[in-house]
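Quick one: structure for this chain?
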Amino acid sequence: MRRSPAAHFPYLFHIMCCKTHSSPSLWYWNCWINYGVGYCYYEILMSKPVSVIVPVHNGQEHLARCLARLRPAMGNICELIVVDDGSDDNSAQIAASYGARVVRTEVHAGPATARNRGAAAARGDILLFLDADVEVYPDTISRIVEALANDPTLDAVIGSYDDKPQASNFMSQYRNLMHSFVHQSGKREAATFWAGCGAIRRQVFFDCGMFNELYSAPAIEDIELGYRLTQAGRRIALISEVRVKHLKRWSMRNVIKTDFFYRALPWSNLIVRSGHMPNDLNLRISQRISVALVFLMILLGAAVAIQTGAAFLIPLFVTFFILLSYYWLESSNKNHRLITGVMTGVMILIAALAWVSHVVIIIPLLLISWLALFTRHRYACPTSTWHRRTGALAGGYCLSLVAFVWFYLPKHPLGTAFLFVLLTLVAINRQFYLFLAGNRGRLFALAAIPFHFLYFLSSGLAFLCAVVSHVSETRRVPSAVTESADAPEKSLAMLYVLVCAMSALIYFAGSGLLLTAVSVVLRRAP
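Got it. Here's what it folds into:
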């Protein structure tokens, strides 16, 4: 990380200016002392090439832990900059207590603006952006410096969350582990940037226009920067060994809101406008197929429910109840009334359908499954052999009950197609579910399946909204259609648009048909 000898000219100029000193001997020694001090300062600065930039807005809860973990890495850091983005808490005071240089924005402008302010004030050749709610590992920064030093053609480096999130609740574990899996299984030559833990050469950052400050909330400002970097021919490397621990606690409401409004919707708008959909990370071909299959599964489920009634609805709701039982039990300790109300309603609905269909035997079998899961969750120590044995026993019983209700009740061709689509979805995403099972257990992986399908559903709906918005804007502002080198990618994007549009129509129609089927079955009760 050394500059050319021309970098020493300011110190030589300072020597010449010192010649006004009256004594030649004093002038001589003063020259070399000034030059030595300046050169040593330059060497120290260049041996620590990284400027760490941490934007924060009312983040005092996690900021201290974030900054404390940076201390072991100070050998590669020439400065630590914390940008206080209009905080109302003690974030700025906490940053100052850890020796950080605090840069303030006039108002709360969002992380994109905050990172740009920090980059403008930085002096290092490498800008490392970190979120205020992450903890670095001792080797995180050294790995980044090594990667950029060993490959001069590399312009940026991103890492990933580790597989040990700080928050212990189900949604935090699921959300952070999903992000970790996506990055750990992504291509090394990345097509996007990540500001949670991402480093970029200073000159490249300014040449590509910095973060887009139109994103006033935490959204996809880093992804949009990554698109511009790749379009400019810059190289971004995803290094799976560069890890950080995420400290944020997620709730179901936060996950749904963030995934749809701050991730899927703006990202879909970016894809539609740019016509670029790289086969990587969340946009892999398998993920696109999963979105279409989720909507197809909803259509098939609604059609079968209309034709067969309780014969299909009972196994469907029993499967849903068992899959979500782990999440329900985990949430019951925190008085989550929403999930408790949903699960109670599903249990009552199953009992009503079983009574109408004269298969009352399902009711005690379902209660036994819930009791087994509750007993295992409440009384089995997570580190004991008993925990594994009871988990295998309870899980085996639940799977047997699911198989029983699916094969015992009358079959229908569309019901078979529904099961085929469901199993295809699980097979396509099996690596993710195996990853969850290996880290948190099989019951956790089973409970994550409905939320993963919900993620695909929200992504498809967001893409449909983006397409409708783009088409309406195009009609209002006519523009000439020109040929481009990106025609194949744009054709693929338009095909995906049509699939998502059809799938969304299927979803809305299917939901109405499903509710209609439930009401029809209940009305037929003797």
